[in-house]
Amino acid sequence: PVEPHEVESQLLALYYPGEGVQTVKLPAGYTLPKGLEDMAEVELINPEACTVGRNLYVRAEGIEVK
Prior knowledge:
Blueprint: E1 9-16, E2 20-27, E3 42-45, E4 48-52, E5 55-59, E6 62-65
Parallel strand pairs: 2-5
Antiparallel strand pairs: 1-2, 3-6, 4-5
């Protein structure tokens, strides 16, 4: 269980052309890579996705700047 003062995960909003914005869940201690700028092209590290109802949920171990 996660205590109220602990961070369970981080959320990052990514834009997919033609699809819109998708939120990606990253590990709690993850640090964004240096050189990451707004609208930079990135690649997800070990992404996983699932659908629940009509909602798509995505998580990854990290991101790399392309």
